[in-house]
Every structure is written in C-alpha cells, then in structure tokens.
Q: What sequence folds into this?
C-alpha cells in the first residue's frame, strides 16, 4: 500500500509498522496522519483536560513545534506557557499590553523561550524568558516579573488594532504583524529592538488598500505570504519582491501589488466580509479562508487568481457604491455592547423566542424582563416611524438649498477614481504612487468603530438613506452599471464563475468577535469555532458536517490542532483553554441535533448582518432624544418647518440635558460593568469561574 493509502488507514499503519519502521522513514508520520484522517477518531473526540490558567477571555492559543508546550493570551493581558501533558503552568507574565491579546506564538529556534504577541491597542511585543521553564511549580512560583524576561516593545502601527503576528519559519529574529492601519510590518530584532514612533515607515513591509485582518506564511515556500483584507479580498505576496523593512528607499520603491488576488465568491459585495482567518494547507495547494458574516471557503492556489487593481477598478467589491439592482437599505437593529444573548448553545433566533422567554444562553441572569432587548426594539420601532419620513423630507429640503455636504470618499472610491484616470501606458512606478495615495486615504479613516456622535446621528442619517434619491447620496461618485465591464487582461467583471473555490463550509456562525480561527485537521477534515459555542468539523471534500463539540458557554474563538498527534486546543469567551482528544468509547454524531443547530445558526447569521453593536449609554441617549423629538413633532402637529423644530429644541435644551443626565444614572443600573470598564477593558481580576461568560470581551464585538 502506498504512503497516501496508509495515511488513511490506522489499521494498516499499525499492521505494517514493525516492518516499515526500519526501512521506511515515513512509518511514524503515516501512523500519526492516519489517526487524524480517521472519521472514527474524529467522532470519538471528547474533552481531555480544562486548563484554568487565565482570568479573562482567551483569544489566542498555540502549540510549540514539538507539541509539548502551549502558549495562550487573554483579556487579562497575561501570557501563559503551559505543559500540555501535565497541564501545569511553566511560566506566566504580565505584559505591557493594555487591551485584549489577539495573537501569541512561539518563535522558532529559540528553545521555546521567546514569544511574540499583539493586542487590541496596536502594540506588538517580543517577550523572551531568561530562565528555563521548570515543571511542577505552583501558579505563584511560575509568575515571571521584569527581571526574568526581556521585552521588546513596538508601537509603530499607525492606528487601530493589530490582529495577528507570524514568525518567519526560517528566522528566529524576524516576524510579521498586521493591523487595522492597512500594513503588514516586518520587524527584525537584529536591526531594531523597539519602536514607539507615532509615524513609523521603516518597518512597513506590505501596504494594503484597507485593514489587514488575517495572514499566514506558507509552510514550505516561506517566501509566500497570504493576507486577508477587510474589502473581502485575499492577496498573495512574494517576500522576495518586497522590501526587507530596513527603511531604505522611498514608499514608492517599497510598495508593490500582490502577485495575485482572490475576492470573496460573490458577484458584488454590498457590505464588507472581513476575513478572520487565512490558512495554507500543508502542501500549499489550497488556502482556507473564514469570513465574518459568511461561510468558510477553500481556495485553489493553483488557480492564477486575479489582478488586484482590476478587482478594485471593477467596483464589484466597493460596497459604498450604490448600484441599480441594490435593494433599498434597511434600518439596522441595535444591540447593547455586552449583550451576548445571541451566543452560546441555547441562543435562539428572534422568531423562535417567546415574548417573555428568559435567555438561558447568558451565564448570568438577564435584566428583568429583557430590558436590553426591549430598549433595542423600541429604538428600532421609533426610527422606522412616521417621524423618519418627516425628518428625511426636512433634510432633503436643506440639501436642495445648497447646504448638502459632499461627504468623505472611502478608500475604495479613491482607488476607483485614480484607476479610472490612469492611461493604458501607466508604468509600475505610477502604480506604486497609487498605492501610496490609497494608504493615505485609508489612514484618514482612523475610527475603529463608530464614535458616539456618529451613533447619535443614526436617527437622521440612517433614515435619510432610504428616502434620498440614489444620485444625491453619492454625488461625487458615478454609479456602476451592473453590466459586465472588461479589463485590460481580458477578464470580465462582475465575476460570474468562481472556479478557484474548491469547497464551501457552512452551518457555523462567525459574526460576534474580531478573531475566529479555522484549521485543517489532517488531510480530510476542516475545523472552526462558532458563535453558538460549538466546534464544527466538516469533511474536506464533501463539505458535510461530521461532528460538533460543545466547547464554550458563548463563543469559540480559536481551534488549534497538535502538530502531529490527534489533540485539539480550543479557547473562547470562557476563561480557560480546553484540550480535546479521541477518548470516547464509541463514535458519536447526532445528525438530527446538528441539523437543528445549523438551521438556527443560518437564521441568526442573517439577523446579525443587520445588527449594530453600540454602548448602552449611547442607546439610552438615542432613546431619550427620540422621545423628546416625537413630543416636539406631536406638539407642532407635524407641520412645522425645520427652523421651528430647531427653535423648539433650543428652548427645551435644558429639559433634554436633564433627561440625558438621568439616563447616565440609568446606565449604571443597566450595564454597570460596561460603564466601569475603560473602552471595553474587562475588569477581570475579582471574578470567579462562574462568571466566565459575562461581557468581558466587549471590544471583540464586530
């Protein structure tokens, strides 16, 4: 039997092992691979150990190269090194991160003493433990202070969060980081030991036209780097065509276009589907991509891909451009930050919930009776009332008088405008200059989330979008026809054939957190976390769900397979790391229960796409303002002009201010913990394990 056949038969590997071990160097690898490729082993997966090593949500977990140690990072801003076999903590240290640690990985060729990490405030760190790990120590003895480590601090990402860090497999002193500022930075510790410059250019390795939310380095050809961008396009780069990040040369000389790009398999995108994970297969022939609000896709890297500039120029992946076939925009639903009622194994779609049903998906009892949900519904109802039409008409009247603002062009609009003006003979140097302009345009959009002022204006701005004529909403941008448009390379847009997609995987739900990992399990299976608290396992070639594991009370953020053995790590909103292994006495899979779970996830995913998460303070202020506005409109009979309404608003300013002050007091009752946490920091120190599932991961909400 060939090695390929042995990798799919545990019995044959064991039967031939005594004879092949001496003559065939692949005998051990074949046996290990056959255990992961066995459906029987997958359906025997069960919880082996729970590692209670953190006091906050665990957003990242990874193995070392040999699979003997585990590194994890949490909202408690600690890095923890744990022995996989015994579950004992080998080292634990408080980092300089101030917000959620999104990624932490071992550096290669460092005896597992060095760890790189990044976090929500944009800081990248390289932490090197000076003393060897000692097994059998207590948690207190394992704490490492500043004297027991060297910490390199890099705060050179221009703004926003950093989502991932990746070591280069062939170098122990160089690693990559990606973030909201649209850059991938290459940090070489031999050149720079720290960086805190507010505007840093020397580490920029790749400049993308938008936020880089996920990336991966090819496991064999380490020169290839895949990045997932918030415009729903995955781009492939060759490191040999990029600068080493040493600071030599100008921006135009450093920046290049990717060698190829793969858009999300849709003709058009009417919203951004942000990739939360990109992962190369072991043989680099395929790329696994997980999209927020969408499915998992398996891309064929043998496909030549598409030209990145032409994808942007086509307008198919610029959701802010209205098209003739676009449906009328709907008023989004609002959700309180800290409201996790739509996550967990017992969460239900709105249509399935009873009117007075308590949400058992929450770990702690919800406010009685459903205060958060009822406030959101009230705001939603008021924003869609007759007041909406009256306010939109007044706004349209103001616009017709010449006071309309042209608005701020998005980075996609800037790219399209520039590309439209390029001639056929544009040189590669001009292409580099274009990317520089795109980067500058992206840098101007520094808001990671909507500011309070933007949310406060939701009653006016969102309602106007449905009633103002299409041409008036975007006066500076030409509408794109839905007809096919040609490109210089002969490709027609929009794409009608997505032959680079080998398989799609659905049934899970990826919408609530900024990080959501997926992985290959051997040669035959795909795994991913879900907002329903389960781990989903699909067959790689058929796309069918073959196993689900209940792994969290709310959301599973990360899944990481052991480098060689059939062990699996998972982490999420719970304050622990879970270790899974095929220890079940018999294979189990409840197809009927899984079908119900998939159906519920599909319904809730559609609902979540039209939901915006905002702080409780903002929602209550919106509610108070809308009540005041309705009283004014009712008093005026709905016929007063905009000037009269504004005059009444000014006369009642004192009353409204008192109402807002009262609302701030109410906020303490509605969401006291949210109000005490600074910008979503989690206040995790004094909680016991029974509170593992509260709103400590607020800033992870998408």
A:
């Amino acid at each position: 039997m060939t090695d390929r056949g042995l990798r799919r038969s545990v019995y044959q590997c064991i039967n031939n092992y005594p004879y092949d071990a001496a003559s065939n160097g692949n005998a051990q690898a074949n046996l290990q691979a056959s255990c992961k490729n066995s459906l029987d082993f997958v359906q025997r997966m069960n919880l082996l150990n729970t590692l209670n090593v953190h006091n906050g949500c665990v957003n990242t977990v990874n193995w070392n190269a040999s699979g003997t140690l585990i590194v994890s990072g949490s909202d408690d801003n600690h890095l923890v090194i744990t022995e996989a076999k015994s579950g004992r903590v080998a080292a634990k240290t408080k980092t300089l991160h101030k917000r959620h640690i999104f990624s932490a990985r071992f550096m290669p060729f460092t005896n597992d003493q060095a760890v790189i990490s990044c976090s929500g405030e944009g800081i990248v760190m390289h932490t090197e433990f000076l003393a060897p790990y000692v097994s059998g120590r207590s948690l207190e003895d394992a704490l490492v202070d500043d004297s027991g480590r060297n910490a390199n601090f890099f705060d050179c990402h221009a703004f926003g969060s950093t989502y991932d860090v990746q070591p280069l497999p062939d170098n122990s002193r160089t690693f990559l980081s990606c973030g909201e500022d649209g850059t991938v930075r290459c940090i070489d510790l031999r050149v720079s030991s720290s960086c805190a410059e507010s505007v840093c250019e020397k580490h920029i390795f790749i400049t993308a036209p938008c936020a880089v939310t996920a990336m991966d380095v090819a496991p064999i050809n380490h020169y290839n780097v895949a990045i997932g961008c918030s415009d729903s396009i995955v781009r492939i780069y060759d490191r040999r065509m990029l600068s080493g990040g040493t600071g030599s040369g100008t921006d135009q000389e450093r920046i290049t276009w990717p060698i190829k790009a793969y858009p999300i398999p849709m003709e058009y995108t009417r919203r951004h589907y942000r990739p939360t994970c990109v992962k190369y297969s072991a043989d680099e022939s395929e790329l696994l991509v997980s999209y927020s609000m969408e499915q998992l896709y398996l891309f064929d890297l043998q496909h030549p891909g598409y030209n990145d500039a032409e994808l942007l120029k086509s307008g198919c992946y610029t959701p802010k451009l209205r098209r003739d076939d676009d449906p009328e925009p709907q008023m989004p639903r609002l959700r309180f930050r800290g409201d996790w009622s739509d996550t967990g194994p017992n969460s239900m779609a709105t249509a399935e919930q009873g009117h007075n049903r308590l949400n058992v998906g929450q770990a702690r009892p919800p406010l009685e009776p459903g205060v958060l949900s009822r406030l959101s519904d009230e705001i939603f109802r008021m924003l869609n009332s007759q007041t909406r039409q009256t306010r939109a008409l007044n706004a349209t009247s103001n616009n017709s008088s010449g006071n309309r603002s042209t608005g701020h062009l998005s980075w996609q609009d800037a790219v399209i405008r520039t590309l439209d003006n390029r001639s056929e003979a544009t040189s590669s140097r001009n292409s580099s200059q274009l990317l520089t302009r795109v980067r500058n345009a992206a840098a101007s959009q520094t808001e990671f989330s909507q500011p309070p002022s933007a949310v406060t204006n939701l009653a006016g701005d969102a309602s106007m979008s449905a009633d103002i004529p299409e041409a008036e909403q975007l006066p500076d941008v030409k509408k794109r026809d839905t007809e096919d448009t040609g490109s210089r390379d002969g490709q027609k847009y929009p794409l009608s054939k997505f032959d680079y997609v080998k398989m799609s995987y659905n049934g899970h739900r990826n919408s609530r957190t900024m990080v959501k990992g997926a992985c290959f399990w051997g040669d035959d299976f795909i795994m991913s976390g879900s907002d329903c608290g389960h781990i989903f396992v699909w067959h790689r070639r058929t796309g069918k769900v073959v196993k689900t594991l209940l792994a969290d009370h709310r959301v599973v953020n990360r899944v990481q397979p052991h480098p060689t053995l059939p062990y699996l790590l998972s982490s999420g909103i719970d304050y622990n790391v879970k270790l899974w292994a095929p220890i079940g006495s018999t294979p189990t899979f409840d197809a009927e229960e899984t079908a119900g779970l998939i159906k519920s996830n599909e319904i809730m995913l559609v609902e979540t796409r039209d939901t915006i998460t905002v702080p409780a303070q903002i929602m209550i202020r919106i509610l108070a303002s809308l009540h005041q506005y309705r009283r004014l409109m009712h008093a005026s009979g709905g016929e007063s002009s905009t000037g009269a309404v504004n005059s009444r608003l000014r006369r009642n300013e004192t009353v409204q201010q008192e109402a807002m002050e009262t609302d701030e007091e109410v906020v303490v009752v509605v969401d006291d913990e949210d109000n005490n946490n600074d910008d979503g920091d989690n206040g995790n120190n004094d909680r016991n394990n029974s509170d593992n599932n509260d709103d400590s991961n607020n800033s992870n909400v998408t």
